[in-house]
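ESCALATION

Customer reports they have been waiting on this structure for their group meeting. Please prioritize. Original submission:
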Amino acid sequence: MRWVSWILLAVYAAFLLAVIGDFRAVMGDEAAYIDPALRWCDGLGFTSAAWWQSPEQLWACNVPLYAVVAAAWVKVTGLSSLWGLRALSLLLYVSGIAFWILGCRRAGWFKSPAQQAVFVALLLGSLYATAPSQYIRPEALAALILGLSLWGQTLSSSHARSLAAFLSGVLASLSGLQFAVTLSLFGLVWWLGTSIKPWRSLVWCLAGGVAGFLVLAGIYFHSGVLEIFLRSTFGLGSNRMAQWHGWRDPMLWTGSAVLVLAVLQHGIPRRERYWAAAGLAAGPGLAAVLFLLSKYPQYYGFLAALPTCTAVAAVYPCFRGGVRLGVVLLLVAASLAGFPLAALMNWNLMSSRQHDSLERWTDNALDDVPAVFVDPAAYFAAKHSKRLVYTHAVLPALTSDERNGIEALVLMPEHPHHHLKRDTVLQLLGGTWKLAGAFRQGDAPPSRFPLLDVLSRLSYAGTYRFEVWRREHPRMEKSDDDSLGAIRTGL
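Update from on-call: job pushed to the front of the queue and completed.
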């Protein structure tokens, strides 16, 4: 039993590493968060052609640390492909969970290997808790920072704990203000779950978060992009429908129910009841806070699942008899209804989204094109050959010369968002365009088992269908800049 938790993590990592390039279709945010890193590696500076600002300006996002880490990864390993960058997310995520487990052991929350195994099984069974390891997004780095933060608070030296708390606050702030909020609420878990109240660590963590934000704001102010930073950080949020998706995780609801039962159950030791209350506050409580801030899309479900699964693993041994059996069966059902079903769904449809095939097709279709406008889902296929790649976010900020330099478009034939519809993009860019080819991989290879197609209701399971349009005449009609403002929207 001692090695079960580590074996589970290793099996998960090995499985995902083998399929990570095609396991999920490319999401729009992946291009937005990784483009500054790739442009930096290409010698174009810490700028972005996939964000809501000019590609000549310093990238003014609230998650710069992730792009810096990704750029270092590309420089050291040379892995700039979709597979290589998602592998980085997997490495960060698994490392973060490993440090979190070590921290829980040293803090006394996990007293037995069985509790470690339960925690890992619950977390990996969650529908959304594993999402940071499957996409190119900053939540993977947040997982590592959170794991290191907890582990740092179990060090024997008080000075070391204070330094770890300060650095955790700085890193969380540079990784995203939402993660700084998360770290502060996770401090509540530590507060309720230990007999020694960590006043000093909480103060140092807060000081680090403020220091990180001030440094970031100062850099952006000096570079003249502070307004862009504030607008993109506080002005953007997921729509309300997307917010509800984060609540669909069976593990979040089941784990919360178990923790409520632990709080109310007679015979549960007082310390374990504190842990259950802390899990409720930092799990569904955190989800509620982020939801009210319009910052709780489904990929933030990890932030709520982590403390929930931790608290459940810490308190479940306290249940006795039939209650314990019922809790175990309920947790097993929730685990099987989450990621395992989603994994089966994605495996069933993987033949309809082979990214290597998309890359080869894009290379042939864009062989002589130096600059291209793409749907974000085609970003990595177009970026494969080191050409200039623009997405809809940057289009309003492009100069006439930059727009004139776009000689090809890679778009979906039909897109649900107005700003990425073919007719909208063609009209905004102006000029004369001709359809030059189409990629319809999603129409050809059927799913492995058609009866399993019903599982696609669990999660997004897109396929790749694109058209390439080539400019017939390089000179573009003068665009109305006011009309370009129509696509100033989020991904």
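Sent to customer with the following note: Confidence is low (pLDDT under 50) at residues 478-491.
Escalation resolved.
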